[in-house]
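Researcher: Let's do a round of design. I'm pasting the structure tokens now; please hold your answer until I've finished.
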């Protein structure tokens, strides 16, 4: 029986493969399950802010873990093919975003609200901007190092002020500062100025990816 030619959909699914399996996808599902379990099983008031603190960097980690020799046994062959290089990287980045953005947003919308925390979709543009920024920075230092820098920068900006305030006595000792974390997240996610800034970062990052596409082709 003659073999059926591959369709554009099956080729895209094959190219996106490492982005849709492996430890990153397990971690993504685990984060969602733990957040829901803490909120509804443990009565943990900080589940939604904690999920929103992690959500923007999960796609970044997914891109870093889905492209390169560490993720794909056939990486050398794939990268040398006409559909390899930057095209393959962008395909896997799109697959990561296509899975993580709706899933995390849906779980965030189902969790109990926290005063001061913006809506469930407020993290989408920052998540996209951080992912594009990781791709742009990856053209200089490699995807995994870039993802680590971006993730460390985001978590430091969000968590360090909250921990400093907690250590300074403005929060109850031993109590998770859910409201303080929600207010800190609101500074980065809420309002037209914040969202406009993230949009500008995403556009600038995309422009840098295009300018640096030759370097990304040869990662």
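Researcher: That's everything. Go ahead.
Model: Designed sequence:
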């Amino acid at each position: 029986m003659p073999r059926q030619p591959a369709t554009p959909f099956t080729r895209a699914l094959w190219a996106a493969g490492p982005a849709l399996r492996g430890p990153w996808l397990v971690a993504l599902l685990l984060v969602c399950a733990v957040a829901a379990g803490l909120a509804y099983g443990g009565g943990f008031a900080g589940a939604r802010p904690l999920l929103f603190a992690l959500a923007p960097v999960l796609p970044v980690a997914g891109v870093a873990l889905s492209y390169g020799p560490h993720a794909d046994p056939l990486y050398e062959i794939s990268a040398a093919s006409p559909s390899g290089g930057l095209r393959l990287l962008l395909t896997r980045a799109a697959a990561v975003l296509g899975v993580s953005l709706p899933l995390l947003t849906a779980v965030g919308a189902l969790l109990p609200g926290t005063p001061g925390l913006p809506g469930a979709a407020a993290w989408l543009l920052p998540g996209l901007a951080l992912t594009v920024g990781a791709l742009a920075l990856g053209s200089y230092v490699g995807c995994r190092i870039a993802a680590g820098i971006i993730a460390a920068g985001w978590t430091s900006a969000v968590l360090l002020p909250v921990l400093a305030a907690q250590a300074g006595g403005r929060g109850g000792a031993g109590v998770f500062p859910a409201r303080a974390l929600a207010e800190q997240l609101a500074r980065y996610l809420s309002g037209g100025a914040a969202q406009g800034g993230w949009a500008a970062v995403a556009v600038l990052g995309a422009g840098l990816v295009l300018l640096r596409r030759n370097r990304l082709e040869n990662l």
